[in-house]
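cron nightly-structures :: item 1 of 1
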Amino acid sequence: MKGQILKENGALPLILPTLIVMAIFTVLPLLEGFRLSFTNANLLNKGAAYVGFQNYARLFTDANFWLAFVHSLILTVAAVVLQLVFGLILALALKQKVPGIKFFRSVIMASWVIPVAATAVMFSFMVEPGYGYFNILLNRLGIHANTYWFGSLHLAFPLIIVLHLWRNVPFYGIALLAAMQAIPETQYEAAEIDGAGPIRAFFTVTMPGVRNMVIVMVTIHVLWTFNNFDMVYLTTGGGPVFATEVLPVYLYQEAWSSYTTGYASSIGTVMFVILMIYFIVYIRAYQRQEE
């Protein structure tokens, strides 16, 4: 017991520099943003006066904020659920022993390692009218298409979801494949002896075996997608006509276009609270299942 305590106490000097760096670059900016949310801070004016909860009261009557919130919610739910579904399908495909599968496993992560800026530019060119690959393909199939998809009220938001899928599904697939490969083959053999077919074996053996990985992947990507700024900003900037406006982009526009940093800080604080509530509820639900 004493040796364990000494070990723990001896580890403190090793992690102290990391804790200090985290406090400087994470905790302090978080606290400063929370403080600014109670002020009328503006980049065009010196100083900031305390205004209490005025910024938060403004949020409740701000139609653009609620539109961005709904879009963020839809994007997060749709992207994470579809990424999980297609990631499972991809993992099952990668698990098969067929010629060339090792090569495919090695190149499947290409879409994930490509910088987001390059991905946004590539997709923008692919949906251009006239010479965009998607429009050319549809025209050859006999479907008249000559529009910039990111400029369409009806196509822009679904295309943002597709962009998330294209980038993240391979990561899901590789992570879930690793979890599947850790499942002992004896469990599948026992399921087969019990008369389980492929579908039943998937739900009784595979899914319980990858459950922890699913929890980790879903949690990480809910946090990442809800906070994601670059994919929307680099492709549509929140347009056309707020059709793809999400909270991170709206926060950025309030801070750096309207210069109302106090109000932007209140948006950031609300986003932080929403994600913390999700995280706490999710962890408690997981702990109850473990019990």
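cron nightly-structures :: done
Residues 2-36 form the longest helix (35 residues).
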